[in-house]
Specification:
The protein is built from 2 helices and 11 strands, in the order E-E-E-E-E-E-E-E-E-H-E-H-E. The protein is an alpha+beta fold. It is elongated, with a radius of gyration of 21 Å.
């Protein structure tokens, strides 16, 4: 009645306590008992906020090897690429939990030092009638020099960025934020239609549009190169 709780747990493990009540966003508390040699109490004060939610339950792994990835930054991103939840970190076993407001659609984006950022497109939450749990297995690709991070597309004879292009560029933004020593080259191409001179100018304009967008998101211009 007073909202108090208690329970016993094992040693040498990692835990996420999830507090759920109908009509409220879940509360999440992480703690670990690794290295404990005597009994210990973990105090947890949880404030539950009223609302309708989607609980994201995920695991971050390395693509190809299945290696569990700890310390991946996890964020909820809305339609304008603003952070609406997080950042939180994946646990030592690669697992993470995040709460999203189901009144608003959002994607989940993961970034980690040494890996390319990965964006998970989520279905629309607004069609859900009840609070739900979304289970994600996110495979992250190791970052290597010369690798293609993302491919973006332009409309015919245009250099303006589409909404999908901006979503893909946002992954590069978070990759650069979480890898402060990294430098990215954005190269742009055209098809074979039109004159060489026209296509050279178009490809330069496309590359510049991509670079300008990334810079507008707070990345220093010295860390990103445009190449038509």
């Amino acid at each position: 009645a007073k909202g108090q709780f208690a329970g016993k747990i094992d040693t040498a493990d990692t835990y996420t306590a999830i507090f759920e009540k109908n009509g409220y966003f879940p509360g999440l508390v992480d703690f670990t008992t690794y290295g404990m040699t005597k009994d210990q109490t973990f105090p947890a004060k949880v404030r539950l906020k009223a609302g309708k939610y989607v609980l994201v339950e995920g695991i971050a792994t390395e693509k190809g090897t299945g290696k569990l990835l700890a310390d991946a930054s996890v964020r909820g991103i809305n339609a304008t690429d603003s952070v609406v939840s997080g950042p939180i970190k994946s646990r030592v076993d690669g697992k993470f939990w995040m709460v999203l407001d189901r009144n608003y659609d959002a994607d989940v984006i993961l970034s980690r030092d040494g890996y390319f950022t990965t964006r998970v497109k989520m279905p629309s939450f607004k069609a859900l009638e009840n609070d739900s749990t979304a289970v994600l297995n996110v495979e992250m690709v190791p970052a290597k020099v010369g690798e293609i991070v993302k491919i973006i597309y332009y409309d015919y004879r245009e250099s303006n960025l589409t909404s999908n292009a901006k979503n893909n560029l946002e992954e590069i933004v978070f990759f650069l934020l979480d890898n402060p020593r990294a430098v990215v080259e954005l190269s742009s191409h055209t098809d074979s239609r039109g004159t060489g001179e026209y296509n050279a100018k178009l490809s330069e304009a496309r590359a510049k549009a991509a670079v300008d967008y990334v810079i507008s998101r707070g990345i220093k211009k010295e860390r990103i190169v445009a190449k038509g």
